[in-house]
Amino acid sequence: MSARAVIIRAGGTNFGSLLAACARLGVAATVSDQATTIRAASHVILPGVGAAAPAMRHLRESGLDRVIAGLRQPLLGICLGMQLLFERLAEGEVDGLGLLPGRVERLPAAPRWPHMGWNTLATTRPHPLLAGIGSADWFYFVHGYAASGAADTIACCVHGQPFAAAVARGQVAGMQFHPEKSAAAGRRALANFFALT
Q1: Is the pTM here over 0.85, yes or no?
Q2: Does 22 participate in catalysis according to the annotation?
Q3: Distance (Å, whole) CA 197 – CA 194
């Protein structure tokens, strides 16, 4: 692959597994919070581990929210990074980046909270991000909040209620699961992202 990926340094995320996943696909990836480096990438990843309010505060204080909003190349939000793409986040009651319409809500307590473990996806509409991925493929999730009924959902999952497992609108995409921790199915999902132009 000829992709040159930048993983946005958005707070205290551990980037090692994402860098390794990119390397396995032959994708040159760097971690950066520099606007010029991010804008020069062919593909941009917004990862996320932690809480929504501190993550959004970091993006705003660093000016990265404006950088992300101005990107024209494929952008992928992963886990919390996907949630930050939405308009409003219930965790901390903060505004998100507003790149996708909708609100991220707390998942139900039953069957357990947070949602942690392996699940399959149900495709809701075809999209290149899901090429070669079927109902028998398993993905790893760990999250307590999710977007339910999002207009841009391309695949959903159920944990107490249906929620968006993958979303896409134009150049903006998101995966609520962790592709870098989802074995062969995750590698396929990441490869599909890097194939987007």
Answers
A1: yes
A2: no
A3: 8
State yes or no: is 61 an active-site residue: no
**Of 22, 43, 79, 105, catalytic:** 79
Domain count, the chain: 1
- Choosing from 105, 143, 159, 180, which is the catalytic residue? 180
Show the domain range for 156: 4-195
Q: Read off the pLDDT of residues 109-128 as tens digits, 9 standing for 90 and up.
A: 878 899 999 999 999 999 99
| Strands (E) located in 42-161 | 43-46, 75-78, 86-89, 94-95, 100-106, 115-120, 122-123, 138-143, 145-147, 153-158
Sign of torsion over alpha carbons 38, 125, 86, 146: negative
Question: pLDDT per residue over 65-109, tens digit each?
Answer: 999 999 999 999 999 999 999 999 999 899 999 999 999 999 998
Q: What is the CATH number of the domain that holds 18?
A: 3.40.50.880
Is 115 one of the annotated active-site residues of the chain? no
